Amino acid sequence: MEMTARHREYWQRNLRITGILLAIWFVVTFVVGYFARDLSFNFFGWPFSFWMGAQGALVVYVAIIWFYARYMNKLDQEYGVAEED
């Protein structure tokens, strides 16, 4: 099956946003976690490194999921492949 130019553009945009969001996920999960001990100040009575590892990363993950779902809904509508209600 041959892909049309419009189909190819759709998947390029999909892969681009997926790559960007995965890069953000990687930074939050591994880079911030690696340098967390250097973040030694109190944040709401807890060490900031603990807060970032336990709560901050989860907030970022939920934001990534929300953004991806919203972006893909708009992209699907733009290219006419959205699900019908």
From TrEMBL:
Domain Sodium symporter small subunit intervals: 8-81
Transmembrane segments annotated in the record for this chain: 15-36, 48-69
Matches recorded under InterPro entries: Na_symporter_ssu
Key words of the record: Membrane, Transmembrane, Transmembrane helix
UniProt-listed Pfam families: DUF4212 (PF13937)
NCBIfam families for the chain: Na_symport_sm
Name of the protein in its database record: DUF4212 domain-containing protein
Organism per entry: Ramlibacter pallidus
Highest classification ranks of the organism: Bacteria, Pseudomonadati, Pseudomonadota, Betaproteobacteria, Burkholderiales
